[in-house]
# Entry
Amino acid sequence: MPASLRILLVESDPERAERVREALAEAGERDVAVISGRRVLARDVAEARADIVLIDIAHPSRDVLEELTQATSPMERPVAMFVDQSDPAITRAAIEAGVSAYVVDGLRADRIRPILDAAVARFHLFQRVRSELAATKAALEERKLIDRAKGLVMKARGVTEEQAYALIRKTAMDQGKRVADVAQALVTAADLLR
# Structure
């Protein structure tokens, strides 16, 4: 994580925003932009190109939480939410929406840096997990496609599963393609001929 982050603070109360900015400055963070949260939030967040978004809100509601998480894109960057009081349903909704850190009892200068570090680390961990999950799903889909192509070759040529795979693999090697690409072409051709 960089020593200094580009931070976007979403806070509608100017006095509260200044207190948070001071707490961030005490923690060594100087690149802090503040937006009110009631403007065109999605555009403002996109234009800010922040490393992390901090949302300081006294009493979150489900509607406010949904609006803020849609605008702050928690799947694209870490989002830390600071609230004065919480309820289990709102906490659960925030975590399910992708908020990296949900902190009750507001911001305090002495704990801001560890919270930022934890939010960024958690965000990167979940990014890695999402990436691995997507790769696993893609591999499973390729496996299903290859199995379907093998079945087509087995039926058309009267060969075993191993022989069908060997034919598909040899064709892929001869054409400089991936096995999954050749399998896709076979399945597409078979679908067209039905």
Summary: The helical segments are 14-26, 41-48, 62-72, 88-96, 109-157, 161-175, 179-192.
